[in-house]
Specification:
The protein contains one helix and two strands; from the N terminus they run αββ. It is an alpha+beta fold. The longest helix is centred in the first third of the chain and has 18 residues. Bound molecules: zinc ion.
């Protein structure tokens, strides 16, 4: 596995963090339950190597410690 990738355990930790935010703030649960983006199918807590105009970059997932309102990879909004 590539070294920028989070492990399954680390992803789970992010999911738990996000659930804690929901419990503590009472804000709407925008993020998909298991973190899979409805649009691009990537996990919002995972890091991905993406390509933009022929240059590669790492698209970082969230740590779940703040309220997630959209996908960090394709920028799809979960609010609407
Ligand atoms: Zn997405």
């Amino acid at each position: 596995m590539e070294d920028y990738k989070k492990t399954t355990d680390e992803i789970y930790e992010c999911v738990v963090n996000q659930r804690k935010v929901w419990t503590e703030t009472g804000l709407p649960k925008f993020a998909p339950n298991r973190g899979t983006c409805y649009k691009c199918g990537r996990n919002i807590y995972q890091n991905y190597e993406l390509t933009n105009h022929n240059s590669k970059y790492i698209s970082h997932g969230y740590d779940g410690k703040t309220l997630v309102t959209g996908c960090p990879h394709c920028h799809y909004s979960f609010c609407s």
